[in-house]
Each structure stands twice: as structure tokens, then as C-alpha cells.
Amino acid sequence: ANEEFTGNLKHHLSELFDKSLKLTVPDVAGVEPLVAASAPEKPGDYQCNNAMSLWSMIKGKGTQFKGPPAVGQALTKNLPTSEMVESCSVAGPGFINVVLSANWMAKRVENMLINGIDTWAPSPPVKRAVVDFSSPNIAKEMHVGHLRSTIIGDTLARMLEFSKVEVLRRNHVGDWGTQFGMLIEYLFEKFPDTDSVTESAIGDLQTFYKASKAKFDEDPDFKEKAQQAVVRLQGGDPIYRNAWAKICEISRTEFAKVYQRLKVDLEEKGESFYNPHIPNVIKELDSKGLVKESEGARVIFLEGFTIPLMVVKSDGGYNYASTDLTALWYRLNEEKAEWIIYVTDVGQQQHFNMFFKAARKAGWLPASDKAYPKVDHVGFGLVLGEDGKRFRTRSSEVVRLVDLLDEAKSRSKTALIERGKDKEWTPEELDKTAEAVGYGAVKYADLKNNRTTNYTFSFDQMLNDKGNTAVYLLYAHARISSIISKSGKDIDELKKTGNIALDLAEERALALHLLQFAETVEEACNNLLPSVLCEYLYTLSDRFTTFYSNCQVNGSPEETSRLLLCEATAIVMRKCFHLLGLTPVYKI
Ligand code: ARG
Fold it and tell me: Residue 525's domain spans which residues?
């Protein structure tokens, strides 16, 4: 069975216990093996917790067993022999503690070193997924909420890509709202010669947006013209389309600066893209009897919601929901996506719940939200300032993301210079490291929190080189790399010829954690929770520190084995960095 081993200890053990369950209680069907990694202070490496619940299913029904511990004993006895399992013991009310074979674990790590970490990737049951993330609104602020969406969405996309899922990374930008009427009209007023308008002439689109909004609010003539502009734009008037395209282009250039700094890939398919398809989709929903008239508007009533979902406004225009229903239809039917993931703040949860429900009613999605094709709304909390309020600048403006990233980089550069690195490194090295550390710190500080909670943005905290920060983790990896290079050994050669021995508790604990990478990524990916991977990475660096402070590597009799453990740790750390969108550094 070792040939089929996917690197996932939990799966492998579950399969063994599944066989044992079928042998032990052949009459009881449909019992899933309950296998979980044990807490570090517990006697075994894994636990199987089926005995107690099984007992409650079979007691009083003429079973041969005398109680849950006896069920546990039988499950243990019927466990197929496997090189993986060293021993099993039943404790307390029937917990089965499984101790893994150190020799087997060592072989699995050696195997990864030879065949690569991709052999530890999860395999979700989908071929193609859409991750809809970042998705700022044109001409409006790209704020820290969009930064969260960009960072979280990129990680989810990376985890799926690692799992060999084709990911359509979609930037669902807001490029089709009624705000364009006033923007275009304002553009015409400020720049009668629209074609020659450049980005620098408009300057800051935010300021431009504010100015046009102010005019819209105080000048009834302008308001009237702006409203007509929307009609012309949506009617396809080339002059208005042109002006619209210009404004979008300027925004796009701004957004691109953020994506480029963060090294995030996105393909823009904005709201406007779906607009031509909306009438057909509404027609289809209508033909299924879902669309009703309500106060001049057209709506879909949904059980469990106090308000209906509006799909056509009373003036005949479309809205956020009509666009999202159409985008979903497109992604399912035209793009054949089997998993569609939306990353926005939790404030939009109701919107998603409602149009998901409408799609189920229309039969586009299966009734169960666990079945594929599947949709998920990945909601996240607010970014707070150190004053506990919404994160703003001192003059309570929205923080410009480019400024924020620039500051992260310059602070980390200052810290490197304080440590004298400007004297040791070339200016390029200094700059690259400052970027890796600065941007990495921003990303990691976001990702390590359970995404649904609010988190406090603090440069001091995230750039601290101690504690659970990107800085600490990137440095830990650099230290491991330098242990390996200082050994003077050809590590690629060692991988082929050397062996790992896990004799000491610290070596064993490190190897076990390395092997738990596969099930951790799988969990993070299934539950769309990057924080699970961050926690794993932090623990890994902790296990490594314990190992390294107790086990001499270079110059010891166990040097080869321990260097291989160092290398395996570095590989797993780098894969975690990759999945979290961090760039590893090799020197500190
Ligand atoms: N543009 C929206 C906003 O800034 C986010 C769009 C999210 N994606 C979607 N398909 N609704 O809030």
C-alpha cells in the first residue's frame, strides 16, 4: 500500500481504521473513521475515537463486546498490519492511541526529498475553480478591505493551484455603477478634449471622484446631465464609452501598482463584462417562475430572508445582484467552474447567501451546499487601527495601499540598515530583502488571524523579529539555509545517498510535523482558512528550534541524517511561504 501513499497520514490511517471498522462491526454500516492527530503532550501520534460512539450504537443489541474499551481493543486487533503503525494502545474510555513507526516516518521524509513536495499536495475533487477576489471599485478607493481580499484570495488560489486545480483568478471590479454618469460628465467639463487626458492630468482619481460627487450633490443641472450620461453610456454611445474606458484605464494603472508590489496575479473581468448577458439570465429565472413584481421592481422571494432579492430596479436598471447572478451563471456554464469562491468582507454575507439561494432555487447549484458545483463566500473582518477604530490615516482619510506598502518596505529596510546589512549586502540585496520582509509582514499579519475576526494593523507588531511574524519565520528559514550551506555538503547528492534516522524525541517530533504538512494544507484548502497553514508554519519553526538546540548538526556523527531533516524543513517552509505569497530570503 505504500506505493499509493499520498503523504497524507490522516487519510492513510483512516483507511486502515475503515477496514478495521468493517471487520469489527460488520453489521454497522456507514461509520466514518474518526482519526485525528494527537496533542503533543499525549502518548500517541494519532488517535482513533470511534469506540465510544460505536458502543452507543451497538449496546443492548446483543453485542459480544462488554463496553467501549473492548470495542477499542477489537478495533486495534483488527487493524490491518502496516509498516506505518508501530503500536496501538487503548486508553481510558476507549481512545486508541497510535504510535507511528519512526523508521517508516524517516522513509516518508526521504521519499519527499527525492520526489518533491508536490507529492504531498491535496487532490480536491474539482478540475477548475474561480477565485473572485480583490475586486475594487473603479474610481473609488481601493481600501484595506480590498487589500485583505487580495491577500486572502491569492493564498486560496495558490493552495488550489498547488492541488493541481486550474484557477481562474478573477478581479470582479466595480466598473459599471451609476457613479460613472457623474464621473464622465465631470471629465467632459474639466477636459473638453477627452482624448488627450492623461493619468497625471486627472491626478488622483479619488480626488476626482470626490469633486464630481460634490458637484453632483450641489448642482441640479450637473446631476441631470450625469443621469443622462449613465443612459448614454449604457446605451453604448461611443463618446461615453470612450470616456468610461479612459477612467477605467486610469484606475487599472493604480490597482496594478498594488498587485505588482504584492506579486499577485489577477485577470480582470469586471461587472461590465457580464452586463450584456443579464437580460437572458433574468429571462431564464423568470421562465422558472422565480421573478416577481414588487413595488415596480422585479425581485426573487427567498425563504429565510426578510427582504427579497432585487434583480431589476424600478427604473429598469440592473444592480449588484443581477450582475452577480449573471457572473455565476457565466462561470458555471461558460467557464465550467466547479468551485466558485468569493472573497469579500463579512458585511456582504447576506448578499451572497441570497443570490446563492436564488441559484439553488433555479437549479443551477445542487441543493446541498457541500456538493459540487459549489459556491463559497469567504468573509473576513475589518482592519482596525491601533486606536481600535477602522484603520484610517491621521487625518482620518482612507489609507492609500501603495503608501502602506511603501512604508512596510522602508521600515524593514531601516531595520536591516540598523543591523549593518547595508555594509554586507549589495543595494539590490538590501532592497529585495526589504521587500520580501516588508510585504511579507503585511501579508502574514493578515493571514495568521482567523479571517472572520477583525485584526489590528500594527507595523511595530508585524515587523517584530520575535513572535509569530513573517520576519521571524523568514529569518528562521534563512538560518536553516545557512546551516546547510555551512556544512559544505552537496545536499542534492545527500538526498540520493543519505538516510534519515529518528532516534531522538526532537528529531521524531520534527519529522512528524513535517509529515503533517499534507493534511494541514488539505484542511486549509477545504475550509478556505489560510490561518491553519500559518499556525502550522509557526509550529514547524518551533519544532525546528527545539531540534536544533538539542541535536548538533554539523560535525556530529548524525550529520547526514540531520542535514536531511534541515533540508526537508527548509523545503516545507518554502512551500508554506509560497502558498502564503511570501518570498523566502536566504541571508540574514
Ligand atoms: N466590488 C465589490 C466591493 O468593492 C466587491 C466585489 C466582490 N465580488 C463579487 N462577485 N460580488 O465591495
Answer: 426-580
